[in-house]
């Protein structure tokens, strides 16, 4: 195991009383996995990651990280990990290559090795030709990849990435995902935080969903989605007064659950939503009711979150909507 944490708790003391940021987190990350820590703002992702990276002390709980005990051997942990913070760690005015070499020397890497390793990582992360550039002249995606070079320069076994793609455009995000997969293919283990559902889905072998400082779901993306039963169907009515009649038709469908009405929308869940629709539409039509629209969508990680917490992770650009009418 690359990370094995038990009962991690972190409480912050503030003027307005204690903030229970992390409330008993157990987690295991195997060697060579990409594990995503997914949750809304303020859920406790960064706090958990900072504890595992030795940057803040747990209030209670234990962990082994990269083969070393977090409490007894924080220096050993630090040697084995790379940590790429949300805000990055390069100065705008500095020269990219100098930042990398200085950072490596902090870890005791000699200058010649630092330059050789740094240049190799620049090639690997598509930063060729940018070694002498001022950091502030790099694009968002280039700067994020430079942050990753900084985190990798001492060849850690385990890399922590805090929201690696926040603020990047879709193309730069997809490009960074490729690079993160490349790191894993080279044998690194990656633990990242994200609040993007599509990122967790596309990139991670396993996902831990955290809310209010507690893990509420864990598993492979597909496993998690399978826990949510059925496709979600939304029927848009042209007239809200017809909702009771439509609800009645839906109630007669075998397997329909979670039937809800909200103004001009009747929604429900049903296995194989796509194949029951034609019959349903005929029944509604037979009653002389006209629909304004129909949507079916397969369970998403947001549905997993919704099922576990009763709230949405609210990430509109990542729902897999399939408009069928
Ligand atoms: N140093 C601190 N002092 C007081 N409260 C803190 C401190 N750091 C974090 N918190 C609080 O702890 C909770 C968890 O914060 P954390 O940064 O871990 O969440 P997060 O899931 O990483 O959120 P985000 O996605 O916004 O980064 C929040 O309520 C936050 O305000």
TrEMBL record:
Its membrane topology: Peripheral membrane protein
Keywords: Antibiotic resistance, ATP-binding, Nucleotide-binding, Transport
Highest rank taxon of the organism: Bacteria
UniProt subcellular location: Cell membrane
Every ABC transporter domain range: 3-237
InterPro entries in alphabetical order: AAA+_ATPase (IPR003593), ABC_transporter-like_ATP-bd (IPR003439), ABC_transporter-like_CS (IPR017871), ABC_transporter_ATP-binding (IPR050763), DrrA1/2-like_C (IPR025302), P-loop_NTPase (IPR027417)
SUPFAM superfamilies: P-loop containing nucleoside triphosphate hydrolases (SSF52540)
Any GO BP annotation: response to antibiotic
UniProt keyword Mitochondrion, yes or no: no
GO molecular function: ATP binding; ATP hydrolysis activity
DNA-binding recorded as keyword: no
GO cellular component: plasma membrane
Residues passing through the membrane, by range: none
Family: Belongs to the ABC transporter superfamily.
Name of the protein this chain belongs to: ABC-2 type transport system ATP-binding protein
